[in-house]
Amino acid sequence: MRCIRLDLEYEGTRFHGWQFQPGLRSVQGTLEQTFSRITEEKVRFVAAGRTDAGVHARGQVAHLLTDSGLDARALLLAMNSLLPPDLVVKALRDAPSTFHARKCALQKRYEYWIRNERLPSVFSRRFSWHWKTPLDVDAMRAAAQTVAGTRDFSSFQASGSPEGTDPVRTVHRVDVLTPSAGTLQIVVEGVSFLRHMVRILVGTLVDVGRGRLSVPAMEAVILARDRRAAGRTAPARGLFLERVLYPEGSTHGIDK
Fold first, then answer.
1. Over pLDDT 90: what percentage of the chain?
2. Which of 243, 242, 15 is nearest to 126 (CA)?
3. The overall pTM is greater than 0.90
């Protein structure tokens, strides 16, 4: 049995998330159908992170196990010739049999984009959250610095999460950047995340930026371990899975 790693990029607007759902358009379902058309083999794609409906990815990673003997380069070209324009396989390579896209991941980097201007932009409306009133970026940045660590993040876990989910997660970095005027880029890096965790964290930071929540209160929100203590869930359209980090040497093969 052969293990293959794929590096993926997709626009999440028209996908109902990563995970296969009968009758709905998903990233996993689209990939599996496409691979089956090429090889006449049913396989299961496993992702580093199961992105929600509307969430985008620039650096998603997946793997599959297959009996196909097709060359990796040929598979890459064949898949991209059949996939829809909002889903691209950026790289496809053979990987060790021990490689697992989710279990081997050391860290994931998410980025959330906010358009903080009075008027919305036609060209960024599918890729950012428009917030028309001014936000205090310095306060948001100060609040973000209090988040990192291995902690119980129950306050940032969406209702309806699987029962028994361990709410303890390790977050390495939360930062609020301003790459250009009127644009906020919130970077969150960590090992793994709870359901809607990044989006709830962003919504809470926006509450700080609008003056609804003080910087010192951010710590109290975390310690409350109560979803009601945190802010709203930010819209999916501003969130990107940017990169997944693996141990050096955990995969090998061609990039393109």
1. 93
2. 15
3. yes
Q: Give me the CATH topology for the region 107-242.
A: Alpha-Beta Plaits (3.30.70)
CA triple 109-229-213, angle to 5 deg: 80
Is 52 catalytic? The answer is yes
What lies within 8 Å, CB to CB, of 128 at 6+ separation is: 113, 114, 115, 121, 183, 237, 238
- The helix (run of H) or strand (run of E) holding residue 222 is helix 217-224
Q: Structural domain boundaries of the chain? A: 2-104, 107-242
Same fold, 2-104 and 107-242: yes
Class of domain 2-104: alpha beta
Give residue 252's pLDDT band: very low, low, confident or very high (50, 70, 90).
Answer: very low
Instruction: Return the beta strands (E) in the chain as ranges.
Output: 2-10, 46-47, 56-66, 87-95, 107-115, 129-130, 149-152, 168-180, 183-190, 239-245
25-50 per-position pLDDT tens digit: 999 999 999 999 999 999 999 999 99
Q: Which of 7, 52, 94, 136 is catalytic?
A: 52
